Amino acid sequence: MVRSGSGSFLPDREKGARMQYLRTESPERGLAGNTPIYSFAWQPKRSMLYAVDRLVRKHRQAVSKELGPLVRAHYPALIDKDEIEYPKMLELSTKMTMAGHACSEIAGFQFDGHRLALSALYGGCCFLADSFIDEYGEAVAREYIDRFELLLTKGWFEIRNEREQLFYAILSRIFSRRDVLEPMLRQAIFSLFLAQKRDVVLRLNAPTFRALPRSRQLAMLRQCARDRGGHTIMVLTCLLAPHVPLRYQHLIFLAGALFMFIDDHGDCSADWRSNRITYMNQVRFPELTLGGIVDATMRKLVTGLPDNPGKDLICTFLFRYFVTRIEKHALEQKKGGLSWAVYE
Amino acid sequence: MRSNKRRADFPGPSTNNGAAARDVAVLADAVAIGLQRLHQRRKLDTEQPLVSVDYRREAAAAPFQFDAARALLHRTGCRAIPRSSRSALYAVWTMTDRDMRVACPQCHPMPRENKPERPVDPTDVFFGLISLVDQFGSILYERGKEYRGTIRGKQMERSLSGLIANLDQKQKQGMTMIMSAMDSILSTLNSYNQRVGKDGNTNGKRPLRDGAQVSRGRKKR
């Protein structure tokens, strides 16, 4: 039995009971009080869950303060449309800010206002970039990939509408706050782009892909999800912390990949509707598979990351994210599909 | 090592939530978007890159490759790098003794093989910047004169003056140094342009007899 950070490993005999629930008894609202806790080898402390709940609320306000004026200036329709898209953008940015907070602390840096702003902006940037690729069909996705390639290799981006103007304004804010020519950051950004490109190519070449043996298909999809998530968090980390030891970079990469697997499971129904194949909607027993990935990754994070608040934060937040996404998945199945990130 | 001391390492600007900083950020947004619009309207040389994030060419020259998915540091070209890890590799120029913990057991990378990181070539950045200034400098100059006369422009001028007034002595010195350097760079560039302009090498533009230049399809003021 190993003890570390905010949680503890359970004895071996309990490890098999992955999907059993343990209900907490908190008077507070939020995940710590209302949501069942999955019995993994690693469990967060209840006090950490409450602390993360409070931090999510605090960061959500800060994210809104950072992105709100930009959205109003460049794409007011995003707020005025009275749809769920803007709140969804704030939620994704809040998630990125939580991850950024954890990564800064892991690397030994204080999560100050500058880092908070960068995290929020990066979240907004990812939200819009993902929407360009995911929400307008295959031909548009292919065109955006070409345009992103031009942006990253030449720096030029033809702004065609308000949504793209907002995307570019956010991007230029990030670029003005950070030296983007730093080698690790450049590599992370370009690797993330290549991972997105592979994802789109898989979608566009579905018949060719389907002709491959199933084991090869699954390996490619798993690698694609790993890279999308891993490089996303590497970009974030490189934006926030200039020096991160290699062994921690690996663990941060794994944490990012886990975010992506959890996301893909949560978006399972929406992805099916848009003919998007992911590792999580192709495996036979998705919840069990995801449980296995969560368990193995958390074990590595808890034993490998330095003992500091960053480790507690990333592990607890990932756990919380997993639980809420499992709920989202169940909700989508029951209600016939909601493309909505459920956190509370 | 923690927090405050290491904050100084961070290569970004310090936090400033003042109104002046916000105004400058809004101005920077407008310049960035304006630059893309100029490019869109073919007012800028479409062949000239603004900035390239792609690092693949430089990365190939690095002595090590770090497999972020498996936590293994390889020598570049190590045959033990699995195919599935190729998309998770990061070029590394220097490894420390602590990185020996993640060294590949097949190729045994060693710190003595470290190479100095190939820095961004300052002349690339410089000529990139000059190329842009050269192309749309006159537009900015005229716009600047017009903008300064507006109410918003006057407010911005006050904000910028306030921002500069709030700089400490060292920052002011730094700023003066940069301004004077820019000044001499621009005058050097002017004389350089006048000389090479005679040979037709004028950043994609047709030289005029008196040394001034013409942008593609647009006369310079």
Blueprint of the fold:
The complex is a heterodimer of chains A (344) and B (221).
Chain A: E1 3-4, E2 7-9, E3 21-23, H1 31-34, E4 36-38, E5 42-43, H2 46-74, H3 77-80, H4 85-106, H5 113-134, H6 138-154, H7 162-177, H8 183-204, H9 206-210, H10 214-240, H11 246-266, H12 268-273, H13 286-304, H14 309-335
Antiparallel strand pairs in A: 1-2, 2-5, 3-4
Helix pairs in contact in A: 2-4, 2-5, 2-7, 4-5, 4-10, 4-14, 5-7, 6-8, 8-10, 10-11, 11-13, 11-14, 13-14
Chain B: H1 3-7, H2 19-40, H3 56-59, E1 64-67, E2 72-75, E3 89-92, H4 122-149, H5 151-165, H6 169-197, E4 206-207, E5 213-215, E6 218-219
Antiparallel strand pairs in B: 1-2, 1-3, 4-5, 5-6
Helix pairs in contact in B: 2-5
Q: Features of this protein?
A:
heterodimer, A: 344 residues, mainly alpha, Farnesyl Diphosphate Synthase, three-stranded antiparallel sheet, two-stranded antiparallel ribbon, 14 helices, 70% helix, 4% strand, globular, disordered N terminus, B: 221 residues, 6 helices, 6 strands, elongated, disordered C terminus
Shape of chain B: elongated
CATH architecture of chain A: Orthogonal Bundle
Physical arrangement of strands within the biggest beta sheet of chain B: 2-1-3
What is the helix/strand order of chain B? HHHEEEHHHEEE
Using the CA coordinates, give the radius of gyration of chain A: 19 Å
The tally of structural domains of chain A comes to 1
Protein described:
The complex is a heterodimer of chains A (344) and B (221). With 344 residues, chain A is mainly α. Chain A has a single domain, classed as Farnesyl Diphosphate Synthase (Orthogonal Bundle), CATH 1.10.600. Chain A is 70% helix and 4% strand. Chain A has helices at residues 31-34, 46-74, 77-80, 85-106, 113-134, 138-154, 162-177, 183-204, 206-210, 214-240, 246-266, 268-273, 286-304, 309-335, and strands at 3-4, 7-9, 21-23, 36-38, 42-43. Chain A has a three-stranded antiparallel β-sheet with strand order 1-2-5. In chain A, strands 3-4 form a two-stranded antiparallel sheet. In chain A, a hairpin with a 2-residue loop joins strand 1 and strand 2 (7-9). Chain B is mainly α and 221 residues long. Chain B has two domains: 17-49 and 120-219, no CATH class; 62-113, no CATH class. Chain B has helices spanning 3-7, 19-40, 56-59, 122-149, 151-165, 169-197, and strands spanning 64-67, 72-75, 89-92, 206-207, 213-215, 218-219. In chain B, the strands form two sheets. Chain B has a three-stranded antiparallel β-sheet with strand order 2-1-3, with no helix packed on it. In chain B, strands 4-5-6 form a three-stranded antiparallel β-sheet, with no helix packed on it. The longest helix of chain B is centred in the C-terminal third of the chain and has 29 residues, at 169-197. Chain B is elongated. The termini of chain B are far apart. Classes of the chains: A mainly alpha (344), B mainly alpha (221).
